[in-house]
Amino acid sequence: MTEDNDDLTNDNIEHQEPQETITRITGMYKEWFLDYASYVILERAVPAIEDGFKPVQRRIMHSMKDLDDGRYNKVANIVGHTMQYHPHGDASIADAMVQIGQKDLLIDTQGNWGNILTGDRAAASRYIEARISKFGLDVVYNPKITEWQASYDGRRKEPVNLPVMFPLLLAQGGEGIAVGLSTKILPHNFIELIEASIKHLQGKRFTIVPDFPTGGVADFSNYNDGLRGGKVRVRAKISQVDKNTLAITEIPFGTTTSSLIDSILKANDKGKIKIKKIEDNTAAEVEILIHLPSGLSPDKTIDALFAFTSCESSISPLGCVIEDNKPLFIGVTEMLRRSTDNTVQLLKQELEIKLGELEEQWHFASLERIFIENRIYRDIEEEETWEGVINAIDKGLQPHIKHLKRAITVEDITRLTEIRIKRISKFDIDKAQQKIDALEDQIAEVKHHLANLIDYAIAYFTRLKKEYGKGRERKTEIRTFGDVDATKVVIRNTKLYVNREEGFIGTSLRRDEYVCDCSDIDDIIAFTADGKMMVTKVDSKTFIGKNIIHVAVFKKKDKRTIYNMIYRDGTKGASFVKRFAVTSITRDKEYDLTNGNKGSKLWYFSANPNGEAEVVTISLRQVGSIKKLKWDLDFADILIKGRASKGNVVTKYAIKSVELKEKGISTLKPRKIWFDDTVQRLNVDGRGELIGEFRGEDKLLIINQKGVAKTVTPEVTLHFDDDMIILEKWVPKKPISAIYFDGEKEKYFVKRFVVENENKEESFITDHPNSQLEIVSTDWKPVADIEFTKERGKDRRDNETINLEDFIAIKGITALGNQLTKHKVNQINLLDPIPYEAPEETPAEELEVVDEVTVTKDSDNPTEVKNGDESLPKKDEDDSDFGLDDKGQVTMF
């Protein structure tokens, strides 16, 4: 390395030996790095858009074609052969080949090739074998239309791109990390890709979404066509075997049964979920059994598995391919269009080559017939030179070649001279003409295909679907997911304690008062005696403020929990009453629920999970000429307002005590619940179909196609089976009517019953394997239409209409019922029910949160609670204390 070395020389020394100098390598490093980055992007990590292969995959497929003789080859042999084209080690080639083989598309495998479900690795390459599949031979190879290049050492030729006539990249998917970019193309369904290609050729719009070999359930609503910024949510398929057992039968893409079980065990160790044990029975199909402790909700556990384990994960696709030796970011829709258009061009090249070959065959067959039929071979008997032979044949052919499509060449005449005498002697003019006619038919057919290239391509894709589509139906179920609220499904196995006097809450205060169970992701809401409120994260020890009067787990957006309080404004101010909900807060911020004046304190406080409004007795101190010292206050008379409202005046005089007189009932309107069929979940946000208005004790009635009825408490964590046919609010006295076929007696029966056992699954049809439910109705007066089967030798019976209420009385759910008819039934249909006015429920009064309104003051009547704020004369400060009653509510006295 050389450069100016002025800084390294000593001007005082005249004679100095040459010495090594330092060279800046910035430019050199930049050049080398770009070379390296380009190599990794183009030659290793990112697939080409033309054939969907990375270089190592392309070389593997080319090597397999070199070795192909219809029999299986040892993978070790294929790997060794591939090393003639791929300048890397055998391990990378073997791993890439196993990945291709596990996708079950291009390679027929034999031996232990691993398991994508369990994550088990394939056996060593010397133990397993492979050959190209029929599909691979059909769509990947055609040396006549393949562009070739020299291999890395120049000894052999390898394809630049294989002539793949199928959207292979989308079918197999592809993933790679290069220098400065990456790619993640998800696999799509074989049949759906073909159907989309056909739609593209027909000029129709199409949409494609991934399909994973592991199955599962996926939400593609944010797929974004596979471009950067998209997201796919994938879930395991979990079903309930019984009340204490869950079964995972399909797993999310990107996981294995081993990694999934590990994530479940970790979540259990951290206390996020609670399980008894796990059994992994996976073999050819996934079966993971999760056994739950008794008393634990299976529906809640399913949501917890989605929230805290790998049973749900997100995949971020990124469509990046190589085109013209440059990376290109492109969506899957455009990938399919380009692949389909490329297939059309490859089919065109195939047809043009085939047409040329057929025309060449026709040309020589015609020459051969002319040559033999006209005995031109005799004209060469007297010729002594090769040139003379050629000229003689050419002269003899000239009168007969006007119908040929091209001129005769020396090569044509040379081929004629190579015809054997035996063939000339056995020449059959009719057979020769038949061959020429057949070639003409084939030429016409190829020309027709070229003239109708799009129709030909559609027929090509249709053939692929017919020949190779069997068994390649969609595995991943498409569904829209609802978000799982982790705070609602987490197992609360940590105990929360409070030191009320000192003002601390936390999980480490075990010597202090126990409050409730919580989890480490919960928020805690706390109120103090001076009217302060704070919401904070669960921790080992947190200071809230002295004299804590209420602590609980905080629920975000909770409009049902209503807080009732009476407080004094400042040290000598009036007392106010207010009711409010806490729906949103800033964590760790202190909120003042009073009017903000120093010395304010609470007389009474209660937290009501369903908006209950109790009645309290207020006692005043004997000061001056107060006429009424004691009266009752009903919180039901107080409007629910915002937490920042001042409240309504209770009295301007000093309060001696506030005591609970009577527990109240809910003052909130029954909660409306909807069912969103898209995500198969309940909600209170107005999405989907309204089921009804529910009070705390109300239940849901669920009936499925198996003839099982049950009532459950409506919770947003509930899961519903696909065979559910009735979901409605349960009216206990409302009968259920059913017609079912009894498999043992082979007769139809009618029964009417009411559900008597809450929260219990009960079957109302017989348990014979052939028994099946025909119709079920929850109408008060249902009507059914019976269509009879025509019996031999008899006229068809007219349809019969049956009022089920008159047909049978209400009996127990386990009763067999009455036989419907002795005649053979063809079909049973429900008709419109007989009009009936069901008894109406009296709705509870709905209290809304409104702004405060100032009204006329009435300071002379201290017993009347006024709507609005009131400025009152100051009184002496009251020195009363506070305490908890036996119900856990705070009473000031």
Keywords summarizing the entry:
five-stranded mixed beta sheet, disordered N terminus, disordered C terminus, 893 residues, seven-stranded mixed beta sheet, single chain, alpha+beta, Topoisomerase II, domain 5, Gyrase A, domain 2
Element layout with pairings:
Elements: H1 26-45, H2 55-67, E1 73-74, H3 75-82, H4 90-102, E2 107-110, E3 129-132, H5 134-139, E4 147-150, E5 157-161, H6 168-172, E6 174-177, E7 182-185, H7 190-201, E8 217-219, E9 232-235, E10 237-242, E11 245-250, H8 257-269, E12 277-280, E13 288-291, H9 298-308, E14 312-315, E15 320-323, E16 326-329, H10 332-373, H11 386-397, H12 410-417, H13 421-425, H14 429-451, H15 453-468, E17 477-478, H16 486-489, E18 494-499, E19 504-506, E20 513-518, E21 523-528, E22 532-537, E23 542-543, E24 548-554, E25 562-568, E26 575-580, E27 591-592, E28 601-608, E29 615-620, E30 630-634, E31 640-641, E32 648-651, E33 655-662, E34 671-676, E35 681-683, E36 689-694, E37 700-704, E38 708-712, E39 724-729, E40 736-742, E41 747-753, E42 762-763, E43 772-777, E44 783-788, E45 800-803, H17 804-807, E46 810-811, E47 818-819, E48 825-831, E49 882-884, E50 890-892
Parallel strand pairs: 8-17, 26-31, 41-46
Antiparallel strand pairs: 1-3, 2-3, 4-5, 6-7, 8-9, 9-14, 10-11, 11-13, 12-13, 15-16, 18-19, 18-20, 19-23, 21-22, 21-24, 22-27, 25-26, 25-28, 26-32, 28-50, 29-30, 29-33, 34-35, 34-36, 37-38, 37-39, 38-42, 40-41, 40-43, 41-47, 44-45, 44-48, 49-50
Helix pairs in contact: 2-3, 3-4, 7-10, 7-15, 10-14
